[in-house]
Every structure is written in structure tokens, then in C-alpha cells.
Amino acid sequence: MARLADYFVLVGYEMDKRGSGDGQGQILQRFPEKDWEDNPFPQGIELFCQPSGWQLFTERNPPTFFVAVLTDINSERHYCACFTFWEAVESTQPQSHSRNGEGEEEEEESSSPIQPAQLFAPKSLVLVSRLDHAEVFRNSLGLIYTIYVDGLSVSLENVIGNLLTCTIPITGGAQRTISLGAGDRQVIQTPINDSLPVSSCSVALLFRQLGITNVLYLFCAALTEHKILFLSSSYQRLTDACRALLALMFPLKYSFTYVPILPAQLLEVLSTPTPFIIGVHSIFQSETQELLDVVIADLDGGTVNVPECVHISLLPEPLLQQTREALSMVLDPELEVADLAFPPSTVSASSLKMQDKEIRAVFLRLFAQLLQGYRWCLHIIRIHPEPVIRFHKAAFLGQRGLTEDDFLTKVLEGMAFAGFVTERGAPYRSIDLFDELVAYEVKRMHAEEGNKQKILRHIKELAEKLYKNENPYPAVAMHKVQKPTEGCHLRLHQKPFPRLDEGTVQWIIDQATAKLQTAPPAVKAEKKCMVPSGPPIAAILERNGNALANSARRLEVVRNCISYVFENKMLEAKKLFPAVLRAMKGRAARHCLTQELNLHVQQNRAVLDHQQFDFVIRMMNCCLQDCTAMDEHGIAAALLPLVTAFCRKLSPGITQFAYSCVQEHVVWTNIQFWEAMFYCDVQNHIRALYLDNNEENHTDEESKAEPQELKSALEIASEQLRLWPTMSREKQQELIQKEESTVFSQAIHYANRMSYLLLPLDTSKNRLLRSSGLGDVESVSNSFVTNSIAGSVAESYDTESGFEDAESSDVANYVVRFINRFVDKVCTESGVTNEHLKGLHVMIPDIVQMHIETLDAVHRESKRLPPIQKPKLLRPNLLVGEECVMEGLRVYLMPDGREEAAGGNIGGPPLLPAEGAIFLTTYRIIFKGTPTDPLVGEQVVIRSFPIASLTKEKKINIQAQVDQFIQEGLQLRSCTFQLLKIAFDEEVASESAEVFRKHLHKLRYPQHVRGTFAFTVGQSPKQAMQPKAKEKNPSLRTLSKNLVKNAKKTIGRQHITRKKYTPPAWEHRSSQQFSEDNEDEISVSEEMDRSTLTPTTTIRPSDKMTINHLVERACCRDYQRMGLGTLSSSLTRSKNEPFRISTVNRMYAICRSYPGLLIVPQSIQDNTIQRISRCYRQNRFPVVCWRNSRTKAVLLRSGGLHGKGVVGLFKSQNAPTAGPSQTDSTSLEQEKYLQAVINSMPHYADASGRNTLSGFTSAHMSSSGKWGSIRASGRMSSYGLNVEIGSRLAGKDLLSAHHNGAPSEASFLRQHRASLYIIGDKSQLKGVKPDPLQHWEVVPIEVFDVRQVKASFKKLMKACVPGCPSTDPSVAYLRSLEESEWLSQIHKILQISVLVVELLDTGSSVLVSLEDGWDITTQVVSLVQLLSDPYYRTMEGFRLLVEKEWLSFGHRFSHRGAQTLAGQSSGFAPIFLQFLDCVHQIHLQFPMEFEFSQYYLKFLSYHYISNRFRTFLLDSDYERIELGLLYEEKGERKSQQVYKSIWDYIDRLNKKAPIFFNYMYAPEDGEVLRPYSNISNLKVWDYYTEETLSEGPSYDWELVQGQPDHMEEADRQDTSAPQTKRKIIWPCYDNRSRLEPDAISKLLEELHNLEMELGQVPERWKDTWDKVKASQRTEARQEGSRTPSSLLMSSGLSHHRRSLGVYLQESGVGSTLNLSLDSDTSSTSTPSSGKQGGRKSTSTLYSQFQMSESENRSYEGSLYKKGAFMKPWKPRWFVLDKTKHQLRYYDSRMDTECKGVIDLAEVESITPGTPTMGAPKTVDEKAFFDLKTTKRVYNFCAQDVQLAQQWIDRIQSCLSDA
After folding, report:
1. Given a cut of 90, is residue 214 above it in pLDDT?
2. Chain Cα centroid distance, residue 1739
3. Whole-model pTM?
4. Which of 13, 483, 622, 921 has the fewest CB within 10 Å, making it most exposed?
């Protein structure tokens, strides 16, 4: 029972303080006058009666009523019902001293001139109560007012006394009728359950005022502890709104400042920092403007204003939407049917009171869904003396999957929820609607989701219950209370409210109190029961099962992997491991891991071996690294017992546990995690404590014992709480004692556990002192494991430093502090006594110290451990003479920007990253290893390149493995288009990496060419590594100084006595040679001694030896081949030859970079040559290098001109000169020289139209030549293009002749085509005027210089072999390729070359004179010869071309390839590579014109920079002779293995295997090639992009052959059976040409193998090939029909040609394609009789088989054939078809319908047969033969013996051909 009202107070306006501004209220009377003991009188009531301030009014206002709420210090709420009315104020005028009565006053007033207005002061009747019965209060105070105002004959004292003594029950749904003794009657209903708030209509009103969204905002703001302010001009509404908001929050209780009506004087409360819900009258709206962090709800305007700085977290998503929908169904039921054509008439909202309950039902459901399963996350830590309960927030959020959700997280952290746990956590208490809802109805709510009707029905049910709770007896509410008469407050003469008699009231109160004390206490038995827990969260969330569906397979993988680890199947485990690590991203897999590991722990301990330990650790780390510090999924919690269980023995008595390797995770430094863990464990122990007790009691009732096991801790607790009052005192004490010791022992246990996980293994490192306590995520890795195993990392810390103690104590202090904080918190919360707590504090430092000592031992031992078993290092195969400089360093080869190897878009296995070692040999850098991905683990990955080709090396930092440190690494780029991106393993010390780099650098840039591999091969590499000693031999120095003077002696001596001499050191020679810098144009001859320049026309006998050698040089053979001059034994020159071989340069005196023998015009003397040479850069004067055998035009080459020379000659024609100067004479000689060249051309004087430009077209069109297309239009346009090139390059209009043949005056002399074109650099030929009298013409063109080539090449390398994957995948490769401009340079070279070919072919000579004459000049000259002369397209010819133009004419290979230290700064310039790329482009366009294959070009590209051979070393013949290289091989016995010349090597290889040979080689006589040079016709060379990781580059043939990989030929007999021997070819891994050779190589190989099997000495492949070709020719001549060999060859070819997309030139007749492989019939010869020359196009062979004999009946005739068993012999017409490889038979010769086919592939043998029954009688028995196939035996019989023999032979030949 409770008092209805505690105090009655009368408050009035305080008159005394009237003058002081604001008025004040004062308490006039209060009853009872002394405070109740249980309920002191609240202070400050007078403020709340007039919240907007006490003021006097000029008119009477009607009485008002509202309820204010005051909260006292114990957070009890007092409801103050204020009833206010107005009374007239007695006016106190200064002149009147007496206050006799009203009458007198009136008289005075009337007499005074101005009558003052009457003022009215407020007076309030206030009831203070702890119960919120607003209506009862309104009625009671109204009654008192009525008695007063209407003057009823009832004693006010009585009424007030009755009011204050009236007691009513608090709850239980009782109905109580009360009367205050004035003939009134009121019925009070108490709610059935006081825990549910009472709201009458306030909630519905709030929604009406603000709307759904606004109220939801307020609701969320209140729950997430924001400040909320209501504004309204009605006090009652403010109270209602606040009450409504509180009602919505049920079951949470609002525990912050709650003032529904805030008085004006207290407005500064609004700036309090704590959250609040406050109501303020709207007249103070302006004062609320500057509140920045308050959500303001204006009830009158219906707005909610959320300031910018406030972020309100809203409900998590599905709930928010569902709540909105439910609310709109309740508040606006018409919405659903608004669109219906025939809306039902009945739809209308419920009554306001009902609607109020429905809204609350929606929110009740919302809370049930938000907090579902909360009881499963409660930890009960103590049961006795009273329960202590904690909520495991992280687990709750984790299980709900709402860890990221702001709203729920804030709610759970809030005070309201803390109160909720305290109040509702108790396991044994009375329960209300919410408890039932959350326990029993959650499943129903889930089931009904989305079904509006069912949801509405549920809401109505709940609303009914809520309504019933407030109004248990709805019918009987009959009140009878007197009301004042209407308008009574306006009466003029109203007496003031009388003063009441305190005595009377007090007497009534005392009477009642005495009566109460004598009355027996009404004990209402509380209905306590066990609170139901409801379904666990997991069960609720089952519906979201899709997350689990795909993980079943993953869990399987995790389980398998763990079982492999524990069964010691390490290889299997390793394969599954990456999948397991990936699976660990999912929560299920992590749980699964903890469960599986648990199974392998026996008696809290599991000892593993090192590898198992490592696996388990890595899995644990991976598992933990995705856990947040909250550990919401309980993964860390599940692993905590395991990390102290798994261990390994390091040495006797020293065990390392898993915890020392999994400390790197943030979760261990989070104190909340430890608390949750601790509470969880304590709960389990306490549960066990009571379960054991029960066990003892029920020993006999075994059956009961089992279900009890399943009881949760809360159930046990509620059981205990029920029994508690019935226990004896001792029993109670004993239980308290037991519980406390349980908690205490757990605290000690946890102190230990925390020290395990917080103290680092190496306590000398302050690893844990991370300021934030949350490490950077990077550190959450496995790093620690591998260190603890490999150990080398810790070496750097000096363990004997003596600072050990100081250091470790630092960590120790930190850990001790951390543990103390933890222990203090949990022990005080769980009620451990102070003595125990002190004991704990003493123990903790000892625990930590002991643990540190243990760890030191473990740390020491773990450093001694052998490193983890890593894959064995594979040794690379080395060449003969190649030796290792550095043993393998363990590294990871990382993927670079090329996708293929790493899997990438192409698919395929991830071969990279691979784990292995990097080796440095004298020749190469080699990586050899195996992919880290275990699924590809059996493969071997090799990537290597020659050291000499290294172009860039830079240090990088990369993360080698997902779970590893960032490691230092290197990125090595090679100009063989290879990139090694390696990360050093952690076991490789950084010093070793440095040593590696230094060695690499030394080998890459040796002091001198002698240091390169080609020279050092076979020597011990140590020499290569030592720095060279200074040359001490002075004779060498002098020798180098006088080298050129004494050149002849030197050379003579060297070669007569065969002594090799050591070259002088590089730096001494460079002064003598032209400067290294190629841009510097020093003409060397001018520094030279004049004595050597005496003209020698004959060769002295002492030079004979030299000359013999020079003659042997390839160039001489070539000159003789072209008829450019001979060196006869008498050395007399035949005068009729236009050119001669001059020996002027035999001592390399005139030009060091030219060969010794040069071709010059016959008429020019040697001394003239010396003078001419000075006009040219580097003294490279024009020499002839090729002559067109048809037009006799010659091709010359030279360096660019110095300022003097031809250009000067052109420029200063008419300039006056003072006497014949030096310049003039050389110019004239030069002119003479050029004229001599022109004179050498036979048709020089011929002025026929053939050489005019108008005739140029026809000459061009008729010249036999091959274009890359069949179409004539193509030819035409392409020709036009070339003329245009000519005219553009020449800078003038070549076609200037008038069409009518009458040339204009100006161009009269120009109509002849010039006899000599000089192609020069535009920049050098500025201002050249054409001279009409000359027969030569200068064509200035723009070319790119070496710098551009270098830059372009760098970009090309980056495009083809990017260092890292590009960010923009769409265009990266092609875009960067285009930007490199490589192809446009190729285009330029080809364009110039084709122009020169054109000019030569039309009979003009050309002098190419660009730059120094050794880069672009060489490229152009070589290409011109290659295009014009078929000889150079053979292997021998190409070698000769390279030797002549590139080697002899001094292309600076060493300098351009930066082969020595001196060239390091200038960098790599791939001039020769560019030339080879051009050849490759031409090869692609004319695949039948080259004897060598594309592989040959790649081979040269690779080896000209690899330094494996000496051929491409040094810059000129002069240097080679100087080093004694040029002729050394002649006399010396060549060592068998080490090939010093690349040509020898190629020859030898070519004899062995046809790799360099092009089977499509079918040249046509005198063919001139004119390739298309447009960029669209150029292809990127696959040499730049392909690689084979299985064997490394395939250009070191011995290494590749070392690993034969030939599959046995699958048995092809039965093609229908599936072929099992599939070979999968991976991009970038396998060498395709080896695994899948072309048909001809395959056949040659089979022949070879068969010969081996037969024991014959196998023939060379070339002989076989030549034989086949020869037989093909004879067959072609003999018979018109197809022969097997020709078919084989040509069909294979045509297919090949077609696939290459090359147009084949058509021959003259019909559309037959001439595919002959021999070169004896030219394609232009008209085929005779359509048989011999014009073979059928193979493309038609298979597609249309008309039945005509010629086509595919190789042989036919009539045979008798015996039918199947018991069938007779019948004559049939048989056709042997070699094309289809079958024997067909027909009924008769004329029959077109084939009756049967015998496949020759199935034939096993042909044997002579015997006549059987029914055979033709007349036939000789030798004419029978049998054909045995895999299916059956056929019996045949021919007309006579010869025919039979012929058939047998034909079939045999068919079989052998197959």
C-alpha cells in the first residue's frame, strides 16, 4: 500500500519582494508540517508552480492544472500536481496607512483622480506524490477549489486530511474507491504490473504532434544518450511528451536528468554536459538557440531539429524499415487501402487510448528483436550473498553480426542498458510482458516477417495486454466529483483562499497513522519465478543460413588440413594450407579451427614436433589476425586455452608454448576482452560448484543427473536463489566462502595467463610498449613465429649487455600494472574480500618475474633451433667453363607486371611467387626454385639472363609472402627482355645481399674486355673477382704508345711467332684511340705520325703474311663473289675492272674502324684516299660494299661529312678563293672520287629514256620483285608510296617532267635520274644548293640519333616486361608500346632501306653517309643488301653480311653494349638488335625467302649481348687484331667444348638439329624484296615478350638439352579411344616449339629414332631433307599424279603459309599455286601442260573430292576379293588413294558409289596368300595376297603375278610414306 499523496502545499505570490524585479513564490502552508521519514519534503516546489516565473496579471485567468516531475537525490521521482488560480492583490498605496477594510479602500480609490488597475496574483494548490495518478490529482484539487470558490459547506481541513491519509495499493490491478468526505466518489485502478509504464494517451499524442520519423529520431537519440529538449506552450503537453518518450523506451529505463517542466530560473541546466530529457515553455525558445548539441523537438510546430554536430545513430536496417511500416499501419490504416477502387468502409484507426497501446506494442516488439537472446550473453559471477551479473557485450554483437552497428553498440554501452542488466539480469524474479515476449515470441516474429496481416494481429494482441494492464476493469470507472460553476473565476468579489487550521489536519493525519500501525501488514506475495532464457541467438539466426552454405566445403578443408598436420602428412597439409588461410576470413572456419585443435589436446597438453608446431602457430595467427580487439566472435577466447596447451620440446626441460608466438595481436592488450574471458570462466566454475553438490545428493538417481548437466548457469542460479532463504546460516556462509575462493583462484589463473600473452619472448625488446595498445595492422602477422624458429634476427641484440634486467623490468612493470588494473576491477566487481585482493597484488610481480625467467631460457633455446625446413635449393645446370661466383642466396622470385606467370587474367597456375635461390655465375644470373603455391609445387621455375645484359639494378622492398615481413629485395632488368624481381629470404643477411650486388657489378662492368666471360671462360672465377693488379710491364706501355707506328711489325711478329700478347691496360690505350664518347668527332688520322701515311701501291714481301690473313676474311670472298676485284697471287690489277681491292688500310692507319682491305674505284690512288678520308667523320671515307649484278649500280657507305667536303663543295662554288687552299684540293679530290664511282657504272653515259624519271615508273614496274601482297593495286599504291618517300626524302619533286615529254626550261637538266644519290643527314646538309652539273644528288633525311634509340629501348623494355602490374588494365601495354616509338624507328629504317633498294634496282648508285657511319648507316646498308641479294638470305650469306658490315666495318659492339667499366655511363644502345628486328619484320612478310628461321634471329639477339662468344666483342677489326682475336683460331687447336665464335657454334648446332633452318625456304631467283614498312604492317617481335620458365632462355642449347622432355609417341592405332597422355602446355612456362614441334621436325626426329632402333648410323637431318627434296623433284617430273612426298611437303607448307596470313604470289596460269620447295622452276615460268608446274592448290585438295581419276586415285585396277566367312570371291574395282590414305572398292569401274573402305592406317601387314575354296580357277597361285588389318584379314587375288606384285608394292609404299 502507498499513500496517494504525501504533501499538500499552498503556494502564493510573495508580496514583500514585489519591488525587486522578478516576482517570487512562497510556501504559505504545507501539510503535514513535519517530513515523513520515508519521504522528505522536496525543495523548490515554488519554482515549479509557476515555471515561467511569478508575475502579477491585470486580469483573472481561468484556473490551470499540470503535473511537474521532480527527481530527488536518490533518483526517486516526485509528481507535483499544481492547480493554479488567480486572486486579486490588495493594493498598498503609500498615503493610506490603515488597512481597515475593502469599503474604505473603495472610497479612497474613487476619490483619487486615477484609479489604478486591479492586479491579480497566482496562487497554487500542490499535491506531492510518488504515484502518477494525474486524473485523481486533478479531481481532488478541483474539489478543493470548488469547495472554496462555491463556498460549499464542507470543511476544507477535513477534505485535505482525508486526501493525505488515503492509501491505495501500488499494483496488482486492484480497484479502489475513495471519497474525500465531500459527497464525492472516485475509482482508482492500479496497473496489474507496475514494471510496465502507464501512458494513457500520451504516446499516441506525441506521434500526432511530431510524426513517425521525428519520433523515431527522438527515440534513437534518447537511447544513444543525446540531449533532448521539448518545447511547447502547454505545460501538460510537455509532461505528456516526456512521459511518452519514457514509455517508448521500456524495458530500458532512462537514468539521466529528466525534467518535463523546467522553471525559468533553472534554464542554465540546459548547458549541462550530461544527457537529459527536458521540457521548456516555448516563450524561452530564443534562449535555446545557442545550444549546439541539443536535439530540439517543437511539439506545437511538429518539428525536430538535429544540430549539425550531432550524429544520431539510427536503428540497424531491416528493423528500422519494419518499425516504420508497422507504425504507419497503426497510425494510418487508411494508407493500405487508399488506392483500392472499392475501399472497405470499415477501416478506421482505433481509439486514441488503444492506438497508444498499439504504438507501444510496436516498440515492445522492436526491443524484443533488438535484444533477442540477450540472456545467453549474461555471465553470472556470484550467486550468494546476492547475484552479480555481467553482460558479454562483444559476444552479443558478434553473434548478432552487428559489431559494426553504431546504434546497438551505443545502446549496449549506455547507462540505460546497464540498469536493464542489473534489473532484468537476475535469474529469479517476477517477470513481465517483455520477458515473455523476448523468450517465447521471437521465433514467431521472425516467422511473420513481411506478412503485414500477421504483424498487425500480433501488435493488436500486445496492445490488448498493455491496455488490460492499465485498465483492468474497463466498465466500472464511475466518478462523482463536484465541479465549480461555469465562469466562477470571473466573480468580482471573491474572498482570498482561507488560511487552514494546521491542528485539525494534523489530527486527522495522526489518527490515520495510528490506525495503520495497528492494522496487520498487508503482505502481497510477489510471484517470483525463474526467468525464461528464450532461444539462443544462434537458433534465431539460423534463417540467415546462406552464409553457412558455401562454407561447408571450406570447413572440410580446414578439418582435413589439421588432421594432416597431426598425422604428420606435411606435404598434403602444405598443399591445403593456402586454402585454409583463405578460408580463415570466414567466422565459421575460425570456429571450426578452434574446435578441431581442441580435439587434439589431451589433459591440457599437446606436444608437437617443429613442423607441426609451425603449422598450428601459423593457423592460429591467421585466425587471430582478422579478430578485432573486441573478439566479438569469441575466437581469441576459444584459442586462449589452446595457446597454453600446444607446445614443443626445445631441449630437455625446456618447452616452448604456442603463446610465445601468437602475442602480436591487439586483442591481448584489450582489458575488456580479459574481463569477459574471466567472467566466463568464473561462471563455468561456479556452475560446476553447484552441479557437483547436486551430484552428491543424487548419487542413486543416475537418471536425473544427466539432464542436470545441461542446465545453464542462470538456471542453476535461480534454483539456488529460490533455496537461499530456506538455508541455514552456516550453509549460507559456506557457499559464500566457496564462491569467493573460486573467484580468487580464477584471478590467480588469469594473472598467469595474462603474463603469458603480454610478456614477449625476448623480454629485452620492448615489443609490448606500444603507445596505443593497438599495433599497426601490419604487425599482426606471422613474423614472430619464423623468427623464433630461424632465430637469426635476434642475434643483433647483445644478450650479455648487462642492461637486460633494466630492460626486462621495464616490460615487467608494464605488465604488472596492466594485470593489477585488471585484478582490481574484476575482484571488486565480484566481491572478493580486501585481504584476498592484497594477497593477489603481492603475488603478481612474482608471477611475472618467474615467467620472464622461463622465457629467457626458451628464447635462448629457440635461437639455436635449425631454420624451418624450407625447400631444398636446386642447383642450376652450368655451361662448360661457367662457374659459380656466389653460392645460392635463398630468395623469392616475385611476380612482376607480366601476368602470365602469376596466373593473371589468362588463367593458368600461379607459377610466381616462387621460392628458391639466386645464383651468380661468371656468365649468368640464375634463379631456380619452385612455386610457393603448393598446387604447382612440383614444377621447377628457372629465370636467368647473362650478366652482360644487365641494364638496371635497383633495391626494392617487397612483402614476399602474405604472412611475412616486408623484405628487402632487388629488381634486376636485362636487355634480353627479362626481369628478376627478388625478395631475399629473412635468413639472408643484408651483408650477403650487398656482397651479391658488388660481385654482380664487378662482373657486369669488367675493367677490360678481357674480363668478360668469353675470355675468362674456363679460368677460375676467382681471378675475375680480384681487382686487376696494375700492369707492371713497361714494355707494354711503350708498345701501346707506338702501337700504330709499329703496327706492321707487331702484327707480323704476332702471327709469325704465334705469340699472344697481353693487351695494354685500357686507360693507357684510350689516349691513342679516338675518345670513348661517340658524340665526339675527332678525326684520328690527324694526330697520327705522317710516316705511316706514305702511299704504298704494292705490298712489301714482309706483309705477305698479313695479307694472306686479310684475304681469308669473309669480306674478300664476298667481294670476289660480286666481281668487285680480286687479289691474284701476283697482285697485279686487271685494269679493265672498275674497282680494285685497296690495301691502303692494311695497317689500320687511315681509318681504325675500317677493315684492312677496302674496295675503291680503280682510278683512285691510295694517297688520294688518305686525303679524302679527312673530310669524313672518323676518317670513314666512302667505300663500295655491294654491287647490283644486274644494273651494276653500287652501294657505298661512309661516315658523315665534316664541315669541309662535299657540302663545302656545294656551298662555296663561286666564292672567291685566295689561291688553291688545302680545302679546295681535298674537295676536288673528293669530287673526283665520286665521279670515279659514277664512271664505273656501265650505263653511266647512256641517256636513254630508261633512266629518265618518267621512265622510272615503268622500269620499276617491270623489275622483277616481290611485294608483300598479291594485288596489283597494292603494288601500285605501294610504289606510289615509295616515290613519295623518295621525293619527300630528297626534298624535291622528282616527277617534275611534263607529261607531254617537252620538259620545261628549268628542269631540262634534271630529267635524267642522278647516277649517284648521297643519303645524308638533314642537319649536316643545311643550305646545300643542287648543282645542275653534277651527276650526283644529295638526299637529306632526318634520322634519329643513338640517344633516341636508347630512350626508346628503355620504354620498350618497360612495356614488354613491366616491373609491376599496371593500374589501368585496358590499354597499358599497347599504349606504352606506342609511346616507346620503337616501331616507328623500325619503320624509318625500313623506309630508308626500301628507298635505297628502289634506287639501286633502277640503276642509280647510292652512298649512305649518316652519322659516324657505324650505326644507322650499318643498319641501312645491311638491310639493303639483304633485300636486294638472295645470297644474304641464306645462312652462310647472312653470316657473311654480319661479319662484313657489322664486324669489319667497325660497329662499336663493346661501346654500344656497355660491356666494360668505361662504357658504363653511356648505357646500352641496341643498334644491332634493331637491325635484327627489321630482319624479323621482313622474315614475317616473306617467310619463304629466308633459309634461316626466326629462332636464328632470336639466337643472335640474345648472344650478341650475352658475352658468351667473342664474336661480338670489341669495336673494330683493329682492336680484335690487337687482342690477337682475329686469326687466333687458325693455328691453335680448338678446345672441343668452348666455342669462341658464335658462327662455329651455330654451324655445329645446325648439323645436329634443324632449329635454325626454315623449312618453308623456297627462294625465287634474283628476288628483290620490298617489305611494307607502315607501322600497321609491323608486328611486335615475340622475342620481346615470350619466356619459358621451365628451362630459362632456350638460347644456351646445351643447358636446355640437359633435360630431355620428349613424350613417347602415343599409340595412334585406335583413334576412337580417348588419348590419356594429354600434355598441358602452360603459357610462359613450357617451350612450345619443343613440346609441340612442327610436322617436319617431328618426322625427321622419328626417322632419326627409327634409324637408331635399327642400329644404323643415323644420317644428318640435312642430308635426309635434301634427299626428300630431290626425290620430290624427280617424282614431279616423272608422273603427273600426286606423290606422297611432294604432297607431304607442300600440304604442310600451304597450311603453314595460310596460317601465317601471307598472300602467295599467283603463277601465270589459272589459280594453281606454285608451292614447289625446289628453286629450279621459277614462279613466273608458265606451267607446261598444267601437269608439271601447276600443282593443284592444297587448299582444295581436301575440301572437294570429285571422283576423277587424276585427282585422288593414286593407283587403281580390278582385284578379286573374298567376302566374309562363307562368302564367295567376287571381282571388284579397287582404288588406292594416297591422299586419304585408304583403299576403296567399287562394284565396277564406272560405279561412283563406294562399296567399302580399308583404312591403310589400320593395316598391319601384307603377305602372299594361298588360294582358298571358290577362288578363280585360272589364276596363278602367286597372284594371291592377304592384307591383315587390326580388325580382320582381307584375301585378294590379281589377274596375274606382275599385277599382284605391283599392288603389293603400291600399298607398301603408301604405308611407308605414312
Report:
1. yes
2. 48
3. 0.53
4. 483
